[in-house]
Amino acid sequence: MTEENYNYRTSQTLLRNQFPGKGKWKIPVIPKFQPKDGDFNDLLLIGFDKTNLEDQNHLDRMVHFFLYDYRFERVWKNPEADIEKLSRYRAVLSPDFSMYLEMAPVMQMYNVFRNRWCGAYWASKGIRVIPTVNWGDESTFDFCFDGIEKGSVVAVSTYMASEHDHRKDQKEWFMAGYNEMLQRIEPERIICYNTPFPEMQGDIVYVDYERSSWRYMDYDQKAMPHEDLDCYKIGGANHTFCDTMDAYIIGKGGGSAYGGKWRPNPNKPQDQRYLGNPGEIKRTIMNNGDVYKTKMGPDGRAEMERHETNHNRGDKHTNPHDHRISWDNPDEHPVPGPPINYPNGAPEFKNFSEVFCMKEIIVPYGSMNFETISEFKRSINWGAEIEFEWNGAVFNIIRYGTDGKITIYAANKPETEKVCETADEALEYMVGDDRLRDIITKVHVVSRSI
In which element (H, E) is residue 295 found? Predict the structure, then answer.
């Protein structure tokens, strides 16, 4: 045997056997995470592709790998290369190599092994590591939880299992694996990246998906050295500025998940007003007393809505004004069009068959608040008109404001107006001393059309 062959034959790059594993497959064990005071207070994450040796502003975050696999394949191929960088952050989640349902079982097992090996390796170098747990269907349960000690802190993500954009709900698949994890690992705490499902048990640390994104970071990502960005590419892949998976790709654990259609959110009673019986008119009373009347078309979906309010801007809306409702989009969700104003008085609002039918919906107090930044952005992009309160002041956001663009302002104060091209730009609006992005999930929403 030549020296070259011997070096290859005994290389850890090939053998990966320096961490004794447990169970049939000897999957490496990640040492149990030892929490410190404040570790989970207002926790935010940072994507591995946004970590940087020059970063001084985000070292209190934990590093996550809920990304396209090609963005972190390097940590397996060259694990020592990122030790210095990763050691600077509060902690690191083990890399979430994909567990697609479409994968051959041996590839699923291989990715579990890689997840645990990297975590064990980093821990051996003094990095604080929390295992990321993922699974496929029930056939993966015999190995996908291996390498994690009982009572460990673990991390999961509901993002790719949640219904949004072009994705359908995969809660049943997710909860099957989650409940199995609870039994097998008995985790001390569960870091949940994205909104937890109501059925999830355990001591859950909720991490807001949007607030952990690059848009919420304190430096310009475009200022990162080009060579740092290129190192995450494979082949001819193009770099895009995102540190989370796009909403329309195949799920990290659940396999393909296309074709989701909009359904009213049972926790948002005002959603119910968009569906009904043909010809029905529903009357919704918002928390601020505004009255919305929603008319159903022949197919039982809303076709027109009247708002009996001027949204605190009489120069842009008459009271009342109407919105035509469109459903012409892939998800078949309601999209209100620009306001139809009536400076000389509004016509009677009646159904297509001229038979009056009214159903009243009382929206419960507080039920319109935004749970995530993503929900706010989706609402705005779909055409929402919103009124909220913060520190005793009232603000409005209208999708079709000045020049037909997103317009945000303090109530009845045109001089405070900001005209925005995108929802992200609107999130930069200063609400008093606070940036809207920082408080949007805390404000009290008193009226909201979407």
Answer: strand 291-296
Q: What is the pLDDT of residue 231?
A: 36
The rounded distance, in Å, linking the Cα atoms of 71 and 362 is 48
- DSSP code per residue over 303-343: EEEEEES-TT-TTT--SSEEEEEE--STT---EE-S-EE-T
Name residues of the chain where pLDDT drops below 70.
Answer: 1, 3-15, 163-169, 215-216, 219-262, 266-267, 351-367
Q: What is the pTM for the complete model shown? A: 0.57
Distance CA 13, CA 435 (A): 47
Query: For residues 367 and 267, is the Cβ–Cβ distance under 8 A?
Result: yes
Q: Which of 257, 112, 111, 95 is nearest to 181 (CA)?
A: 112
3-state helix, strand, coil in the chain (%, to 5): 25, 25, 55
With vertex at residue 67, the alpha carbon angle to CA 71 and CA 48, rounded to the nearest 5 degrees, is: 65
Neighbours of 37 (CB within 10 A): 6
Query: What is the rounded distance in angstroms from the CA atom of residue 166 to the CA atom of residue 261?
Result: 7
Looking at residue 238, its pLDDT comes to 38
Tokens of 228: 């740092």
